Each structure stands twice: as C-alpha cells, then as structure tokens.
UniProtKB/TrEMBL annotation:
Stored Pfam families: Ala_racemase_C, Ala_racemase_N
N6-(pyridoxal phosphate)lysine: residues bearing it: K40
InterPro entries, A to Z: Ala_racemase (IPR000821), Ala_racemase/Decarboxylase_C (IPR009006), Ala_racemase_C (IPR011079), Ala_racemase_N (IPR001608), Ala_racemase_pyridoxalP-BS (IPR020622), PLP-binding_barrel (IPR029066)
Gene behind the chain: alr
Similarity-based family: Belongs to the alanine racemase family.
One example of a Gene Ontology biological process annotation: peptidoglycan biosynthetic process
GO CC annotations on file: cytosol
PROSITE patterns, alphabetized: ALANINE_RACEMASE
Pathway annotation from the record: Amino-acid biosynthesis; D-alanine biosynthesis; D-alanine from L-alanine: step 1/1
Cofactor: pyridoxal 5'-phosphate
Binding site for substrate: R138, M317
Active-site annotation: K40, Y270
Protein name stated in the entry: Alanine racemase
Entry EC no(s): 5.1.1.1
C-alpha cells in the first residue's frame, strides 16, 4: 500500500510523549527487571521502525513483536537489542529466526522436534521462550505431562537456548484479582516442574506492571502504556488509576478540502443518511474507511477549527463529510483524533464510540496514512 504523503491527512506521533512513557515505565520496574517494549503491529499503529530507537535510548532492554516478519523489520533497521516474537511461528522458520538472533515462543514438543531438524541442518541455535497457558486459552503448555516431556527433551539439547518462560494474563486490567491469582498459581506450578532453568521468567504486560498485579519476574512486556494509553479502558467503564501519568502520543490531523452550503431536503453521502433540515454548511475531509476511518464513525464529532462537528452521511472509502455550524474556509484544520486524553475526540473516546478498545482503533489506521513524528 502506498503511503499518501501528498495529501493533507496524517497521523502525528509525539515522540517526546513516547520517550517519557518509556522512561517512566523503566523507572517503575523492580530492581533488576528488564523493560521489553512491545512494538507489534507497527508499534500499535505508531510506527515501529521510527520509535524503536527512541525507546532504546529511553531505556528499552529489548523488544517484543507478534510475528517473525516484524522482528526482521527491526533487524533490518539496525535494532541490535534482543527481540522476542510473541506468537507461534512455523517450525520451518526456526533457522531464519536463529540466523537473525530473534527468539521464538514454544508451545509443543512436536514444534521443537521439527525446528531441531531445521536448525541442525544449518548448524544454528535458536533462543526459545516456553509459553505457558495459565488461563488465557491462547498458546502455551497447560498440561504437566506435556511440559515434563519438553523439559526432558531440552536437557542438554544444544539446538536450543532456553531464554525464557512466560505466561500472559487474561484479566490484569481488571480490579478483580481472583482469576489473576488462579493464573499465577498455575504458572508457578508449571515452573516448579522445570529443571531446565530459563534465563528470564516473565509475566507482566502493561496492566500487570501498572496495577501492581505481578509476581517476581525478570522482565516486563510493556505495550499499550508506551503509547500513553491506559490498558484498563473497557467501553463505558472507568479506568483504573495507573502508577504514573500516561501521555498519549497519537493524533490524527487533516483539513477541509471543500465547503459548500446545501438546502432543505438535500442529501449527504451514500444512501443519503443525512438530509438537510434547512440551509446547512457541509465540509468534506479527505479521509475514509480505506485509511481505517471506518463507517461506524458516522455521528462521531471531530474538531474543525475549534468547534466539534458531527460526521454526517456515511463515511466513504476516501472522504467523509461534517456538518459545520457556519461557513468555514477550505483548508481549515480538522483534528479527527486528539492526543489530549480529556478531549471528546481522544482515542479512548473514539473507542467508546466504536464500542471497542483504543488498542483496536490505533491498529485500524493503516499504511496509506503518513506518520509524522513531532517533538523529536
Ligand atoms: C500484546 C502483548 C503484550 C503487551 O500488552 P499491553 O497490554 O499492550 O501491555 C504482552 N504480552 C503478550 C504475550 C502480548 O501478546
């Protein structure tokens, strides 16, 4: 997909905010703990290659990505710190990962056996992290017998270096501790079966770190908080108080490309879901669902100049329309998303409008949108 750099629409990323969140995340760690910055999905839409060096400078000890290609992208961008892939990769890719010094998670003995063949052929050793399913129901070992067999398989096996053992919490972002405590118990039990000693034990995501729901661990996989977003933001419910102030970094800015007056009975957009009740001023913004600004944004208010104006008519593929309070000139600034967490068009408020979480909204914005890095 081509990034449209010659149009008046871009995501702005406040680099100073990312730096500050990273520094604060690092300060918040327990003595000796390492900070692994989660930059999967292009750093939650903020730009992984641009921001990894900023995070490194601010104290990142390593990076987590979702898939091998994201790790390779970082290596191509000269990132030399450890990189851990969080999702399962085909065993056939074990050599590619090892050759690029990228660590992979492991969830089954069969995977290890297949990967070992590939690694032996190339004479490579792969760094692995044993994934434990302590209650997330996603990936990882959950049965004692399976885990013991893997432990035996890995003893004195030089095709692998057991760099980590980890689990992921399903409810670290909630005030309820019961399920979290259950997961901790499961994890500790499986850990007790291990005679192979992983270098790093890790359990925390942003929520577990910020809401003091963690156990002794060697590193923290810090994601959403780096982008200044509170992990506890379920639609319609109050946020938990984070341990330090989070500064959102993403704003989304465009401008009016066209302004006109319409009259009573005149329709706007596909299906004419908006019909003018009288004389109305309508502005057009050059952003649409092909950018990830989806049709469900119809009705959401964006800031035009200094007034919040509702999106009227259906959002088109590449444009949408707003109802203006008065005539405004083409070229007037439109702020679709504000980085001010208190603004009615914050990422959090947009997520509420879409009945989802801001993680998802940030990831919706795709590569057609240019990313501009401010406050470097
Ligand atoms: C995405 C992810 C994280 C980071 O989660 P945040 O809520 O963004 O901090 C940590 N660990 C795993 C396994 C993940 O998939």
């Amino acid at each position: 997909m081509i990034t449209a750099v010659n149009r008046p629409a871009a995501l702005h990323i406040d680099v100073a905010a990312i730096r500050e969140n990273t520094v604060n995340a690092k300060k918040h760690l327990k003595p000796g703990q390492k900070l692994f910055c989660v930059v999967k999905a292009n750093a939650y839409g903020h730009g992984a290659v641009a921001l990894a060096p900023v995070m490194e400078e601010a104290g990142a000890d390593g990076f987590c990505v979702a898939m091998l290609d994201e790790g390779l992208e970082l290596r191509r961008a000269q990132v030399v710190k450890p990189i851990l892939v969080l999702g399962l990769q085909p065993a056939a890719e074990a050599a590619l990962a090892a050759a690029n010094d990228i660590s992979l998670p492991v969830s089954s003995l069969e995977w290890l056996k297949e990967a070992e063949q590939v690694l032996r052929k190339e004479g490579l050793q792969l760094k692995i992290h044993l994934a434990i399913d302590s209650g997330m129901g996603r990936i990882g070992f959950s049965e004692d017998e399976d885990f013991k067999r893997v432990n035996d398989y890995l003893k004195d096996n030089d095709a692998f270096f057991v760099e980590g053992m980890f689990t992921h919490f399903a409810s670290a972002d909630s005030a309820d501790h019961a399920y979290f405590d259950y997961q901790v118990k499961r994890f500790k039990h499986l850990q007790s079966l291990l005679t192979v000693k992983p270098k790093w034990i890790h359990v925390d995501n942003t929520a577990a770190s910020l809401f003091e729901k963690d156990i002794d661990s060697d590193l923290v996989r810090f994601g959403i908080g780096l982008y200044g977003l509170n992990p506890s933001s379920a639609p319609g419910s109050a946020d938990l108080e984070p341990a330090f102030e989070l500064k959102p970094a993403m704003s989304f800015v465009s401008e009016l490309t066209y302004v006109k007056q319409i009259h009573k009975g005149y329709g706007v957009g596909y299906g004419s879901t908006h019909i003018a009740e009288g004389d109305e001023w309508i502005g057009t913004v050059p952003v649409g669902y092909a950018d990830g600004w989806i049709r469900k944004f119809q009705g959401f208010k964006v800031k035009v100049g200094d007034v919040y104006c509702p999106i009227v008519g259906r959002v088109c593929m590449d444009q949408f329309m707003v109802l203006l309070p008065k005539e405004m000139p083409a070229g007037t600034k439109v702020e679709l998303i504000s980085k001010d967490p208190a603004a009615p068009n914050s990422l959090r408020k947009a997520a509420d409008w879409l009945d989802t979480i801001h993680y998802e909204v940030a990831c919706l914005f795709n590569d057609r949108l240019a990313r501009v890095y401010d406050n470097k």
